[in-house]
From TrEMBL:
Organism field: Skermanella cutis
Superkingdom: Bacteria
The protein's name: Aldehyde dehydrogenase
All residue ranges annotated as the Aldehyde dehydrogenase domain in the record: 7-472
Residues the record marks as active site: E245
Similarity-based family: Belongs to the aldehyde dehydrogenase family.
Cross-referenced SUPFAM superfamilies: ALDH-like (SSF53720)
Pfam family, one: Aldedh
Keywords attached to this entry: Oxidoreductase, Plasmid
Gene3D superfamilies: Aldehyde Dehydrogenase, Chain A, domain 1 (3.40.605.10), Aldehyde Dehydrogenase, Chain A, domain 2 (3.40.309.10)
């Protein structure tokens, strides 16, 4: 692990295994950090935050280091992608796209670092010069999920460092290898020791201590809403600031006037890409009843052609789910769906191909006969499972879409320019994609409403999540007035 600029084993000396989801076999050993290791890392980050080496680097200098990191990551993108595929089983084509694109977050926030400006207030109190400035928070604890480890790290690390904070990263115990490799690249760029620290291990042993540590000022977390709620509650004990990017049950809405071929591709992208393991998965398909049968026919025919297999191969379109516990969870929801009366018109089981028997695969699955009260329509499955719900008109579509504890994303397919502009305003979600799906950018804020989280990542709003505001009052008067009267 990387702690205070030094590579170190866990104090316990223990390690744990990490498996390749395609083969189900162990391929790496990871240090099993504990509370004492977290303490070491947080203290190192705290010392770095207050130390001369980091504080002497001004905002322009921080930006230059971030841009240099982006350049270094470009040189190592392919290697990092291969490591991530071995760790999380997602397609090499997808992970290459992420490891090549994630540098843009470091470029963007590197450029934004010295654009954070305060203000002089035209204060209403005579004899005072008053201004505001924005300052870093301190030590940030970043807790990273297993589905896109380095990509989602960039969303947190880039704005945190641009703002002048120091960071302790806790990667998922299922996908830690790429984070350790990333930390080696980070070290080569020239950041002072302790600015980035990486502690690997399990949530109860590492994550919980990181959230509770009194020297940690902010937690940035991506993961399930169940864990997010526990983090929120624990962080409240020390009044930590939090950014929580949690789950979703996003509705992908297909209107009768949509281009059906494009909508089919968008629906497939929304739920079967990445084996459904994205928080923005369009796991609820809402279809106008007038086109329901035709659309489902086209959708099933297209989804049936999806090639399952080795995620390292360019011909593979659907890989395994990332963890064995997640496989078991997805399989349990297939049984729940059947018990609720839903009909699997595609998939609904593990593949029978013997070449896939060692991996953690689930067939792309489409359930019809679903209503919005069923568990498969309300609970996040995080797998390649789609629930189809018909609607009568646009008002009902909006009502169904909003009838969810989540509010992360939504999709809308229509050829009407009027509906493209008016319907998104009625959807209670942080993001809406019209005639596309799963588009993200370093420029665009990412986050949700309701139980899908708190705060925003990416875009100019993200750096505000890592800053605090200070007001400075300077008296220009030569004599202190009556001290018993509030100024």
């Amino acid at each position: 692990m990387l702690i205070g600029g030094e590579w170190t084993a866990a104090l316990s000396g223990e390690v744990f295994e990490t498996q390749n989801p395609y083969t189900g076999k162990t391929w790496a050993l990871i240090p099993r950090g504990g509370e004492a290791d977290v303490d070491r890392a947080v203290e190192a980050a705290h010392a770095a935050f207050n130390g001369a080496a980091w504080r002497s680097i001004n905002a322009t200098g921080r930006g230059a280091l971030l841009r240099k990191l982006g350049d270094a990551l470009a040189d190592h993108a392919e290697r990092l992608a291969h490591i991530e595929v071995r760790d999380n089983g997602k397609l090499l084509t997808e992970m290459l796209g992420q490891t090549n694109y994630m540098r843009q977050w470091y470029y963007y926030f590197g450029g934004l670092a010295d654009k954070v400006e305060g203000a002089v207030l035209p204060i209403d109190k005579p004899g005072n010069f008053t201004y505001i400035r924005h300052e870093p928070i301190g030590v940030v604890g970043a807790i990273i999920p297993w589905n896109s480890p380095l990509f989602l790290t960039a969303w947190k690390l880039a704005p945190a460092l641009a703002a002048g904070n120091t960071v302790v990263v806790k990667p998922s115990e299922f996908t830690s290898a790429s984070m350790l490799e990333f930390a080696r690249i980070f070290e080569s760029v020239g950041f002072p020791p302790g600015v980035l620290n990486v502690v690997t291990g399990f949530g109860a042993e590492v994550g919980q201590r990181l959230v509770e540590h009194p020297l940690v000022s902010k937690i940035a977390f991506t993961g399930s809403e169940t864990t997010g709620k526990r983090i929120y509650q624990a962080a409240a004990a020390t009044l930590k600031r939090v950014t929580l990017e949690l789950g979703g049950k996003s509705a992908n809405i297909v209107l009768a006037d949509a281009n059906l071929d494009n909508a089919v591709k968008g629906v497939v992208s929304g739920i079967f890409a990445a084996s459904g393991q994205t928080c923005i998965a369009g796991s609820r398909l809402l279809v106008d009843r007038r086109i329901h049968d035709e659309f489902i026919g086209r959708l099933v025919a297209f989804a049936r052609t999806a090639a399952l297999g080795d995620p390292m191969l360019p011909t593979t379109q659907v890989g395994p789910v990332t963890t064995k516990p997640q496989l078991e969870k997805v399989l349990s929801y297939l049984e729940i769906a059947r018990s609720e009366g839903a009909e699997a018109v595609l998939g609904g089981r593990q593949p029978s191909d013997p070449e896939l028997s060692g991996g953690w695969f689930v067939e792309p699955t489409i359930f019809t006969g679903v209503n919005n009260t069923m568990r498969i329509a309300r609970e996040e499955i995080f797998g390649p499972v789609l629930s189809v719900i018909p609607f009568e008109d646009e008002d009902e579509a909006v009502s169904i879409a909003n009838d969810s504890p989540y509010g992360l994303g939504a999709g809308l397919w229509t050829e009407s320019i009027s509906k493209a502009h008016t319907l998104p305003n009625r959807l209670q979600t942080g993001m809406v994609w019209v005639n596309t799906y799963r588009a993200t950018s370093y420029m665009a804020p990412f986050g949700g409403y309701k139980q899908s989280g708190i705060g925003r990542e990416s875009g100019q709003e993200a750096i505000k999540e890592y800053l605090q505001t200070k007001t400075v009052w300077i008296s220009t008067e030569t004599e202190v007035p009556n001290p018993f009267v509030m100024r």
